[in-house]
Amino acid sequence: MVMQDNIFLINKSYKRKIFEFSIDELNNNFQEIFENSEWGLIFHAPEGSKLYMDGLDLIHDERIVKDANGIYITPSDDPYYIYNHNENENKYLPGLYRLKLVNQSTVKYSWLKIKPKFLTENLLEVMKQDVENTVKGLARSFHANTNGSLSNYSSFLTFEEIEALTILNNSYKDFNLNTYFLSHSPRVRAGSYYHWTRNKKRNLDNKSIKKMSIKKYDKELYLKDFHATVDISENRVLKRLLLEILQVIMNIKKSIEKIPKNLMSSDLKKDFTLLQKYSSKLNYLLKEGWLRKVQIVQKEKGISNAYLDYRYIFFKDLNWKLKHISNFQPQFSRQYQYYWHRTDLLYEIWGYIKVIEALKSLGFTPVKGWIFDNVDLDFQELKPGTCVEMKTNGMYKHFMYLKIKYDDEVLPEEEEKVTLSNPLWHSSPHNRPDIRIEIYDKNMIFQSTIILDTKYRRLKNMNNFGKAGIVEQLNAYRYQLLSPYPFRADSYQKYNLFHRKNEDHQVIDVAALYPGELNDQEEVLSELKTKSTKSIVLNPRFPNNSLLKKFLKESFNQQEETFEQFEKWDEFLKDF
């Protein structure tokens, strides 16, 4: 048995996967396992051998050694765990990892591929891009709205395209004025030329005399004359700038045209109309106006002559802003790079973002919290306890104020410790859902809550009681998160006549968000075993997230019904 045959993976059933090594680093020899499956790496080899391996920094093992060439392991009879359920925080994640076997005489290579369980590698990449674009888009949308411009938000567009739309929205008024004045009054320069004419008001010069000595026309003189020309250096540069601006606009139009119509927001439709206005005006200037007489140049620097002309300065600045968007790229916290390498956490943060996105589409506007607090658009990590606050924008009969809390622990263990700012208490160890949406009225009196928990696992593994399942946990969220509000508040105490004390369950509904199976063809919303909680497929393959929106909308409808019940009680109490 050659040395590399002593390097293999082994699982708890003692099944082995033996690595094949080659001197060719780019060989196609790899062993393949699924993430979160319990495998250990056995390395049996002569003394002095080292096995360098990508990803060793992801796991915790005191035997791992680091030197100038990287991180490596030494021969051992005990396995190095790729995944161990007892240490879920330290594990290999989906990806391709190189193994480099080094001894005194040779260097050989092999590969380990870890496949995601519930999402394809392409979908994982989509999620990463979606998180980045969505976070940047939502934050930029919020800041744009506070300044009165359109939101331009879509997770289908890149950061550069979203920022370009912001610039174009903010610049359109000046663009419209400058294109109008420029089309009617361009910068010109007097240029000389010679021609045959009967006009004898101009004097002959040497060039005229020389020409006329060679050739004569009856009663015509060859004289120098002057005319205004638009084909000058600053206009050549201007034409290049306008073409570059037009190219940016056409690229964004193409990106928007690829978005399915049912997923295009009304703001984005307005933005598309704006882009059409830009392109039509630019095309007229370039093809129908005086600029068609101007040469196209790539490197001429004559615009310095136009620095005092506000029209030329405007287009120079607009082009510079559109070309240098990446200079102002918001900075993601290093923590986001950690999310990229933790599939379960990536799914968790992606789920939280999709909930905020869904709420926005259901008529709620961000007020503050997390990315909506960052004036400089530098995005910090999504920390436990993060709270985003939103409010209705007129789409509902009754005003609702939301607090969307991420990984926030319900601390009070008894009703007496509840306050207006911490309106919930728990009677179960399960008191930390991934996402909690708290609903308040116009006076900031707590009304109810909606619970969502992200679960990166199969439905069949969730749908049972005990350690492996989540039914018990979700049931605890449903029935053991309690609140004396709103009836404890002074303005609601009059309703205690109709309210029984044992009805302090203010959780409207509970759902688990999970990625579904790889072969799912559509979204699925179903009840779990006890029928008191639901499960919702949330997957990048289904970008509309229609079932999440349906679940949330039905929950808000229930809250609307509660508000209407209060109004009916008010009518009844008028007679007493």
The total number of structural domains is 3
How far from one another are the termini? 94 Å
Helix content: 25-40%
Structural class: alpha+beta
Q: How is the largest sheet built, in terms of strand order?
A: 13-14-15-17-18-20-22-21
Quick one: biggest sheet? 8 strands, mixed
Count up the helices.
Answer: 11
Total number of strands: 22
Overall, the morphology is flat
Proportion in β-strands: 15-25%
Q: Low-confidence parts lasting 5 or more residues at pLDDT below 50? A: 145-153
Radius of gyration, taken over Cα atoms and rounded to an integer in Å = 34 Å
InterPro entries: DUF2357, PDDEXK_7
Protein name: DUF2357 domain-containing protein
Domain DUF2357: 208-298
Pfam families: DUF2357, PDDEXK_7
Overview of this protein structure:
There is one protein chain. With 576 residues, this protein is of the alpha+beta class. The chain folds into three domains: 3-115, no CATH class; 149-188 and 231-328, no CATH class; 334-573, no CATH class. It is 33% helix and 21% strand. The protein is built from eleven helices and 22 strands. It has helices at 121-146, 159-184, 206-214, 233-257, 266-288, 310-323, 334-341, 343-361, 459-462, 471-480, 546-573, and strands at residues 7-11, 16-18, 30-34, 39-43, 50-53, 65-67, 70-73, 76-81, 95-102, 107-115, 189-197, 221-229, 364-368, 387-392, 401-406, 425-426, 435-440, 446-454, 481-482, 507-514, 525-527, 534-537. The strands form five sheets. Strands 13-14-15-17-18-20-22-21 form an eight-stranded mixed sheet, with helices on both faces. The protein has a six-stranded mixed sheet with strand order 3-10-9-5-7-6, with no helix packed on it. The protein has a four-stranded antiparallel sheet with strand order 2-1-4-8, with no helix packed on it. Helix 1 (121-146) crosses helix 2 (159-184), helix 2 (159-184) crosses helix 5 (266-288) and helix 2 (159-184) packs antiparallel against helix 6 (310-323). The N and C termini lie far apart (94 Å). Mean pLDDT is 81; it is low at 145-153.
